[in-house]
Each structure stands twice: as C-alpha cells, then as structure tokens.
Amino acid sequence: MSDGRVPASSQRVQRALVVDDEVELARLVGDYLLREGFTVDLADNGESALRLARTAAPDVVVLDVMMPGLDGVEVCRQLRTFTDAYVIMLTARAEEIDKLIGLSVGADDYLTKPFSPRELVARVKAMLRRPRTGQAGPAQSQVRRFGELTVDPEAREVTVADRRVELTRLEFGLLDALSARPRMAFSRRQLIEQVWAKDWGGDEHIVDVHIAHLRRKLGDNPSAPCYVMTVRGVGYRMGPG
Questions:
Q1: The CATH number of the domain where 23 resides is what?
Q2: pTM recorded for the entire structure
Q3: Alpha-carbon dihedral 49, 50, 54, 57, rounded to 10 degrees
Q4: Is residue 40 part of a domain?
C-alpha cells in the first residue's frame, strides 16, 4: 500500500510510516503529516509495515493495534529488534491494559480512536523535536559506574558484570538521565522533559512501563532494585549498585 509520497520541498525531511487496515484513515493521517513536511509511507497490514520499516527507515511509525494477521503489538515488538524509530500506537479500546500492552513492547505513546489528526501530528512533532538522550555536558559524558553496572554515554554502551546490555534508545535515555545526576530524585515529569520532550502531552505513567523494562534488562529485582531505585511519592533515582 506504500505510495512513498514525498513533499514538494527538496530539503531534508523526516520520514513517517502510517500503518492501519482502515485505508482511508491511514491516508488521512498521511495527508496531515505530508502537509507538515514529512515523507510518508503507508501500509495496511503488519507484514508490509515491517518490510517498509526495514527499507524506508522511518523516523516515526504510527501503528494501529487491531489489525488482522500480524497485529500492532507484534509489529511493535518486531520493530524494536531492528529500529529505534518512535512508535505511536492507535487503539479503539480505551481500557488502560490495552494501552500498557502497547507500551510494554516499546511504544512511545498512544492515542485512542477516534482522535484528532492535528493532535497526532502535534505529538509526532513534539517527540521528534529533540533527541531522547539528555543533553549532558562534557563532565557528564564520562563513563559512569554503579557497582557492576557501567554506562558509557559517548559510546552509548551499557554493561552489567561485563555483559553488554542492549537497550532501546528510549531506555538508554532514561538510564542516561538518571546516571548523569545519581543523587537526584527525578519525578516522572522531569524524566519526560529529559527523555521525551517538554511539551509532550501523554500519560506520565509511560515512564513506569519503560523503567520496568529497563530494570528487567539490567537484571534489577523490582522488589529490591540495586540500580534504579523508586523514591516513593517522587519518582526514581540511581542506586549505589
């Protein structure tokens, strides 16, 4: 279904992949993004979406959850094995569990149908406005060690007991923000401003979902964490390791 639509401007633009089995809705979203200067590819099923994501290398993927065959949750799971593109999931279900299912496989945001295409475009632009990693100064770029955990911001490498840990760009951004100021207790809003964007308008509990996945990858026991500590009533901070 991809039409590889490219805006008239010849300047370097960002690429969006819109995936929805409702063809007219996909085209509507694509048209809004096109008017904002994006290159737009469309797909109406999960298999096509994965092929396009590999060849077109989108900056952001707008992904419907409920599709026949390969659904959006599985597509997102597979996307996270080869791309760090931002993913916004679309769902017709308002229950929180459906939203968290999408977020648990690496989605960055969600919208419940029906939604405003203008709001969707605003969220996309907010996410792309700044990189996910915190803007660390020279001193903060040094290798950081917390017990067996090592964080190398410049190389974007994380190891635990000399075992390399593969993190998504978003997970690394959270760990980078926390480890750069290990004595600071960050609220969810502060982490969103550091890792997402200051004007990001989604549910702040998205932070909890990604912290849970970060802990799992670090081998951090959620009931007695060593590296990413919960500060009750506030948020999170780094532990001594």
A1: 3.40.50.2300
A2: 0.64
A3: 40
A4: yes
